[in-house]
Amino acid sequence: MLRRELRVILVSLIVSFILTVAKFVAFYMTHSVAILSDAMESIINVVAGGFACYSIYLSGKPKDANHPYGHGKVEFFSIGFEGAMIFFAGMLILFKAVQYFISPKELHSMESGLWLLGATTVANLLLGLYLIRAGRQLGSITISGNGQHIMTDVYSSTGLIVALSVIHYTGWNWLDPAVSVLMSILILTKGYQLMRRSISGLMDETDMKVVDKVIAILSSHRVPNWIDVHNMRVQQYGNNYHIDCHITMPYYLSLNEAHDEVKKVEVLVNKEFEEGEVEFFIHMDPCIPSCCHYCLKDACPVRQHAFTGEITWTRDNVLPNRKHG
Predict the structure, then answer these.
(1) Superfamily (CATH) of domain 208-318
(2) Strand positions, DSSP E, 7-166
(3) What is the tens place of the pLDDT at every residue in 84-141?
(4) How many C-beta atoms surround the C-beta of residue 65 within 10 A?
(5) Which of 178, 236, 179 is closest to 205 using CA atoms?
(6) What is the end-to-end Cα distance of the chain in Å, rounded?
(7) Does domain 2-202 have CATH number 1.20.1510.10?
(8) Where does the record place it (predicted)?
(9) Is the pTM here over 0.70, yes or no?
(10) DSSP state for residue 66 in the 8-state scheme
(11) Cβ–Cβ under 8 Å, residues 100 and 180
(12) What are the distances in angstroms from CA 28 to CA 3, 36, 104?
């Protein structure tokens, strides 16, 4: 899988470099600050692609004594770095647009520049779709983030082509820096979103979609010995997940029997969970008399209270550190 991830990001790096050169050629042909803005953003694609190559290589290294959970966290550094670079590019584009408002420049060879920009946009569209699809298949947030950035580039380039076409046919050159300002706002927003995602990952912010997915898997394959699940915590390391939780089981189970139940949980979730590999750390809690009213074991030899109804597992009762009921 690591080789495929590196191959995918290397394709992104090479294509992004070629398209960046083409956009700068279009800028020198037209002297359009809006095209310059697009070209400057594409530089970030190249820089981010290079950093992504290293982060994917590092995240694929096996666990060691210093990194018992692996090296997958580096992918959050990768998208944070990319977000910071995008944000910086947005600031530069905004500064350049203000300069052009103050000192306008005459535009040249607009038709040729538009054709060249259109070709780079189509190529970027194909690249972005390829990266997003590959990121989903490989469970790589670095590749997915890179693909989403490329798609943002596609949207901004499409809007840019429309605006430059209007300028070309109307002669309203003031639209050139105005469009550049709009592009800078879009780019700044995207940079902020990537940095926000990076910080949330590095701070181990809970991904509720992952929690809901795991709860749904456990609920659909629930067995009587799993009386309740609580104190669940999820951490992401690249495309790997570490989950620790408490599972309440009948107190009279032998150590071997309890271990077998824990193994069932780990095997089940890894089989059904498509987002990546899951490592479990499960603390086994013995049942107490207050568990009897929702315990599903029909022939429990130590039941002290009648069964009153099954408790549905949700975020509200799986995440807190307390037995249900």
Answers:
(1) Cation efflux protein, cytoplasmic domain (3.30.70.1350)
(2) none
(3) 877 887 787 787 777 777 776 666 777 788 888 889 889 989 998 998 888 888 777 7
(4) 5
(5) 236
(6) 44
(7) yes
(8) Membrane
(9) no
(10) S
(11) yes
(12) 38, 9, 16
